[in-house]
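Worked example (supplementary).
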Amino acid sequence: MSTPKQFDRLVPTGDTHERDVCRTCGFVNYQNPRIVVGSVVRHAGKVLLCRRAIEPRRGFWTVPAGYLELHETPEDGARREAREEALADLALGELLAIYSVPHLSQVQLIWRAELNTPGTGTALFGAGEESLEVALFDWDNLPTDEIAFPTVHWMLKHEREVMAKGYRGPFGNPE
Amino acid sequence: MSTPKQFDRLVPTGDTHERDVCRTCGFVNYQNPRIVVGSVVRHAGKVLLCRRAIEPRRGFWTVPAGYLELHETPEDGARREAREEALADLALGELLAIYSVPHLSQVQLIWRAELNTPGTGTALFGAGEESLEVALFDWDNLPTDEIAFPTVHWMLKHEREVMAKGYRGPFGNPE
Ligand SMILES: [Zn+2]
Ligand SMILES: [Zn+2]
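After joint prediction of all chains, the assembly is encoded as:
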């Protein structure tokens, strides 16, 4: 489909960091950390999780989350990801957590959210293209051994802490 | 120096959004929102500001802030920017604010900070390469008409609010 580019690692003129510079045409491929936006979604005393249809971690459970797009507010991004992955319309609440995952160059912004409940008879959620299934779990029956990523463990733990003790500002990475 | 690349705007196979794809070799230039990390730095009851030596807004005052680099934690990034722009070593405090600037595709993470004060006789700060000068300002004598960016107004206002009423979690964009 596409010719792999040959990049050299060097500091472009006027820059302070090494970048990948195309050997042929000098194009500088700036790479930046990425912002993940997502939510811990509550409904009827349960929590919504999505079983991943894509790699990495296909078949494992996660929350609706993904990369923020250009010109999108983080809140809009979190709602968009829930629509795409869980066919769900969210009412966002407080910012639950800000996690940094430097080895993946990610900063994650995670909201508390509830499912919006339109008129009766309407499905509130379903499996989007990137999900095998979407389900509500009791808090004492989470699929703990089949969680996709460490940060999902963190946010479920932090949401429990808010439910028990109230909201006191966003959490960071656990110690 | 470099041949400008010709990019077409299209949705690559398996993707959900339009991207810039090189007409010649198919290279996909993914562009993501960028994370700005910075700090409102206090010392001796004053606040540290940097007068910009670079565009945009050369000659105007800002706080030490810049883009987060790959594999860097946001806290390390905020400290690095203060070293680069103000030759200053910071002790970071609470996260003051999370601002989103969707028209620039930026999310800004801004900390409260104090200058670390090493042994006497050592300069605590100075103008880095991207600064014309770095100075401490009294809170009632800020260069209000020469502030570089709207978010700098926001964070100075929010820091004042914390000083007056205590810290209650990070601020977001003002209404
Ligand atoms: Zn090239
Ligand atoms: Zn090309």
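Two points are worth noting when inspecting this output. Residues B 5, 22, 24-25, 27 surround zinc ion (ligand 2) (CB under 6 Å). Chain B has two domains: 1-31, 34-165.
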